Amino acid sequence: MSSTPDTAQAFAKHAASIARRAGVVLLEAREDAKAQGVSGRALGALGDARAQEAIASWLADEAPGDAVLSEEAKDTAARLDAERVWIIDPLDGTREYSEGRDDWAVHVAVWEAGELIAGAVAIPGEDLVLDSASITPPSAAAPEQWRMAVSRSRPPALVEHLRDSLDLAVVPMGSAGVKVSSVIRGQADAYVHAGGQYEWDSAAPVAVARAAGLHTSRIDGTPLTYNRRDPYLPDLVVCRPELASPLLAAIAQAPSFGDHQ
Fold it and tell me: What is the rounded (10 degree) CA torsion for 162, 163, 165, 166?
């Protein structure tokens, strides 16, 4: 049976609490590591480990019996039969984190009865947490030119096609959660990814985006589904509803992406 709205709100607030606390752990770990001369990949690995350890401990105490799917933990088939699954990315944007930037995130989502029922995205560098219980839609006012959030380091080839086809302004930024959050916050109007991701990369941002009334789908327009046996979920579209049809049409016309599965 699906959760009631009140239950979903409670899980969203719980997810937000965990994401915020993990952000504090990550910021403190980075400061300590810098003082000890730790940097680069070692710093990223340290952050991943510290956040995973903290979140796993909190969930064991606060959500006993629930299954967990996390980027930084061994996956088990037991989650496929679980009533509820927490889908976690303890540190989304390890590269940005290790470089001392602010555009990285913590993802905490809750799946139940076949659906995402709650999610939270923390952007600790901005002391910000977005959650599916309290999020509001972005402004209805359309910009003079639609803006698309893209990777600052490795934008997929599809981005160039969409930029030219729809005359989009591209806005480079860090992690996937930050890019989806930019659409939720009205800083961008779309985020399209086709370069390979897993469920933990998008579950929490998608839960918040849906609560904000945004369009979310695969790049072929089919629904994003979670807690599948194979957590590989390589592509997604998150955008303002009025931009969904032209975006999906342009994607379908892209030579290398129209048949993407």
Answer: 100
Predicted confidence (pLDDT) per residue in 169-195, tens digit: 999 999 999 999 999 999 999 999 988
Residue 73 DSSP symbol? S
Find out whether 210 and 216 touch, Cβ atoms under 8 Å. yes
Same domain, 83 and 176: no
Token pair for 92: 């989304």
Helix axes 176-184, 199-211, angle to 10 degrees: 10
d(CA 166, CA 235): 19
Q: Which two tokens stand for residue 224?
A: 């994003």
pTM for this entry: 0.93
Q: What would the pLDDT profile of 44-54 be if each residue is shown by its tens digit? A: 999 999 999 99
Which residue type, as a one-letter code, is found at position 103?
Answer: D
CB 161 within 8 A of CB 148: no
Whole-angstrom distance, CA of residue 43 vs CA of residue 103: 16
- Domain, as residue range, for 102: 5-131
Same structural domain, 34 and 75: yes
Which amino acid appears at position 201 of this protein?
A: D
